[in-house]
Amino acid sequence: MSWKLLIKDFEFYLRIERGLSENTVVNYSNDINALVDFIEESKIEEKPKNCSRETVQQFIYNQSKLIGVNSQARRISAIKSFFNFLIFENYRDNSPADLIETPKLGRKLPETLNLNEIEKILDGISLDQTQGHRNRAIIETLYGSGLRVSELVGLTLSNIFFKENIIRVTGKGDKQRLVPMGSYSKKFIQIYTDEIRQSRKIKKKFEDILFLNRNGRKISRAMIFTIVRNAAYNVGIKKKISPHTFRHSFATHLLENGADLRSIQLLLGHESITTTEIYTHLNNKHLKKVMEKFHPRNK
Asked: What does the pLDDT average to over 77-82?
């Protein structure tokens, strides 16, 4: 079978069998297509069934000069998953990616904002502008509930429970969780839905989507990035931030104020507690203050 057909089957397998998010499926598919492009450009006559270890190694070596370590690691992971899928489906007896090592990744600490910086960004959003209340509600929700950007753009009105102060979030792999809605995000979501959103002409199929663009369609991930960066730039914050910065800040501030890791894990929708543990390394200043305050030999 051709690369194209098997990549389509692989995408279906990732969605249905492994329950991966659409973003992960797209990334994995792009990684395999990058391998196919390399094979075609190098004029290598190999199909999925007979792709050799040497070809995969050449491709990985070529990629190491073009992309960063994190992207290399994901690309290798995608290739391994693809050939393991072919073995599972009896297209091959072995994987040409078995002996390829994933590059060692340093544990990169995420950028965070302090409370003053967050309040400065929020207060700097002009509510006189057309999309001001929407943009304020977006950032309040990112920080107030610690959502991923993909979770935010997928929020629906039917999953906002104002009376209970709860948001039902669909996370990675279509897993759902209930997250408390902060008082500020609740306030600005209500203003946006009651006074702004209902006056818009909403396109068919987007009637239940919470955050809409000016054309009445679901707001894009790219637009959320633009909103966040502009909001920080407008108040003179120089840090390189993204929507995820507010999620990191949400978790860090909870930890600093005494929340336990297990609760933070559930709020963030992390499958493993080890993912959440990165926040224990974030704020050495805070930990130093804790030591000074509570250790008996520091009195």
From this structure: 93
* Distance, CA of 33 to CA of 78 (rounded, Å): 10
Compare 119 and 105 and report the one with higher pLDDT: 119
The domain 3-88 is classified under which CATH number: 3.40.50.2000, 1.10.3210.10, 3.40.190.10, 1.10.150.130? 1.10.150.130
CB 146 within 8 A of CB 250: yes
Task: Classify domain 115-291 at the CATH topology level.
Answer: hpI Integrase; Chain A (1.10.443)
pTM for the model: 0.65
Cβ burial 50-77 (10 Å sphere, 16+ → b, else e)? ebeeebbeebbeebeeeeeeeebebbbe
How far apart are the C-alpha atoms of 148 and 177, rounded to whole Å?
13
Q: How many residues does the chain have?
A: 299
Span 245-272, pLDDT tens digits = 999 999 888 888 888 888 888 888 887 7
CB neighbour class for 129 (10 Å; exposed up to 12, middle 13-18, buried from 19): exposed
Active site residues: 148, 172, 244, 247, 270, 279
Sheet containing strand 166-170, strands side by side: 160-161, 166-170, 176-180
Beta strands in 43-165 (DSSP E): 160-161
Taking alpha carbons only, the member of 76, 35, 79, 84 closest to residue 59 is 35
Q: Sketch the domain layout of the chain as residue ranges.
A: 3-88, 115-291
Residue 27 is given by DSSP the state H
What gap in Å lies between CA 100 and CA 276, rounded to an integer?
28
pLDDT at 229: 93
Count CA atoms closer than 13 A to 232's CA, side-chain side: 20
**Quick count: other Cβ atoms within 10 Å of Cβ 179?**
20
